[in-house]
Amino acid sequence: PKSNKSFCSCTCLLYTLALIGVVIAGGYYYINHGCDLSNEHEEMKCSVIFFLRTMPIIMNWRIKVIGLLANWGVVDFKQSMQSYMNTWNMNRTLSYTHNITQAPVLTQEWEYNGFKLYSYTPNEQVGVSNQPVVVHLHGGGGIMFSPKYFESTIRYLADKYKIKFIVPDYPKSPEVVFPTAHDICVNAVKYVFENSEMFSVDPKRVSLSGDSFGGNAVLYVAFKWRELDYYKKYDPLHKLILIYPLVQLVNLELDSYKQEVNQRIITQESISIITSLIIKGDLDLNELVRNSSLPLMSQYYQQRQTAVPELLPKLDWEPSQSMVDKYSHYADTVLDPYASFLFQTDFSHLPPTLLINAGYDILLSEGLLLKQRMEESGVDVEHHVAEKIFHGFFDFLIPGVIHTPTLIGFDKMGEFLQKHT
């Protein structure tokens, strides 16, 4: 019978097994990464990273458990998924679609410079040369996830809109710090251009997309493409799609950070941890980032504050010289226009851009500022706010069901990609 009692019994058993697995995985993680558990700071760092990298996997696993129980006839899939989303205050309308895991898409695995790269080609496009392509740089705060985590979404988009996607992997913090991962993303895009015949893509129609941290990486690639004259050596980038991008690391007190409804998925605390790990590979900067005081240690503070006062308001205290000596390098990094793109002075070289923000997201305010900066530079930018949905909706895609605001966001992507192709 499809009863709540059966559902609870089965899920409790499976969750117990999952918890045992997490404990074993945690022990392996601490040993494999040489965590010194006698050092309180090192233990905290390892614990935070393990938690951040494990929780999304557990959430994803719960969804798969619901699907498994539904296949066994123990629970009703739609009701169980609605119950799951209600726990995240996502009690909105569900729209059904075909089973995305069975989307007729050819998946291939490649290697570039020691990293994995995955291509997703709609079956109708297999063997067709000079196709348009979207290179997607995945999100995860620069510290977690891999292309495979986003595979359901990418397969769905490739199949529905009949366009090839290529998704490269890149190294994560704290194993590397800024800008290592970003530079490897640049190399991945170069690899696609240099091997356009192998990938059967048209080098004049290579677009980039990225969600969250991946959106930050997309902007990094786009600005480096101009700075390093890659647009002459190869071709200009065709289009950009920025999905709730992280575009500044300096002010965690913007309006959207202050609204409680926006704190469901990512919070001020999680962004400060992520920034500290990206910039330094440690948690030392966490408090300074959280209270938005790290920029005070930078030699560029006054210059940046004058240029973008709405992003970098004046603070009423002076750091000591010892603090400046200790943190100035990291402060310079967060004020770098290649890390916090709202400090860029000219966006005019960017190709047509689609900017998508989530309505319930702490990154909404900086998305609106980015839109303003782009428009001031004359960029052809389209902006869409996915109402009543949270940060991370790009990967909230479940076999057999899709959240309505997510579907609308995907349709915006499809319409944008099909223009001028």
* Global morphology: globular
Percent of residues in helices = 40-55%
Strand order of the largest sheet: 2-3-5-4-6-7-8-9
Number of helices: 14
- State the distance separating the first and last CA atoms: 51 Å
Give an overview of the whole structure.
With 421 residues, the protein is an alpha/beta fold. The strands form two sheets. An eight-stranded mixed beta sheet has the order 2-3-5-4-6-7-8-9, sandwiched between helices. It starts with a helix and ends with a helix.
Tell me the layout of helices and strands.
Blueprint: H1 4-32, H2 40-71, H3 77-86, E1 94-96, E2 105-112, E3 115-122, E4 131-137, H4 151-161, E5 164-168, H5 180-194, H6 196-199, E6 201-211, H7 213-227, H8 230-233, E7 240-243, H9 268-280, H10 286-290, H11 301-307, H12 321-334, E8 353-360, H13 364-376, E9 381-390, E10 397-398, E11 401-403, H14 404-418
Helix pairs in contact: 1-2, 2-3, 5-7
